[in-house]
Amino acid sequence: MGHYSKDSFSPDQSVGFAINKARNILIAEMDAALKDLDINSQQMGVVLAMHRGMATTPFELAKLLAIDTGLMTRMLDKLEGKGLLARSRSVEDRRVVNLSLTDEGEEVANRIPEVAPVVLNNRLKHFTKAEFKELQRLLFKFVAD
């Protein structure tokens, strides 16, 4: 079943347009809120994923966050340059790079929950609990494989 057709498609009324606009708004607000931590919203995803043990290699992070490996390498370079993470070669397989947060990276990760919920709650302030749950359900359905 198609939801769009050549005749009915209007870019500014498409789901893709709305998702992209919502993403851009959220990124701008989150980046501003994270400024004091000296990271941006994309870097936040990397730091939190590592902090919570969701990924330990660049490949795992790229897959989890749906980011191409080139962009992931550049983000890891920046985070390493800021002293937030360290890279090391796997003893079992030298092709594998393992990542770990430094003490400073762990400190930043621990501060993110003080910042991110404020931004998200402000953006969601006009949603009822039921609307929030439905939005969450639909977004996870949309991104499911």
Automatic annotation (TrEMBL):
Keywords: DNA-binding, Transcription, Transcription regulation. Residues 12-144 form the HTH marR-type domain. The keyword Hydrolase does not apply. GO terms for molecular function: DNA binding; DNA-binding transcription factor activity. It comes from the Bacteria. PANTHER family: TRANSCRIPTIONAL REGULATOR, MARR, TRANSCRIPTIONAL REPRESSOR OF EMRAB OPERON. This is DNA-binding MarR family transcriptional regulator. It comes from Paraburkholderia bryophila.
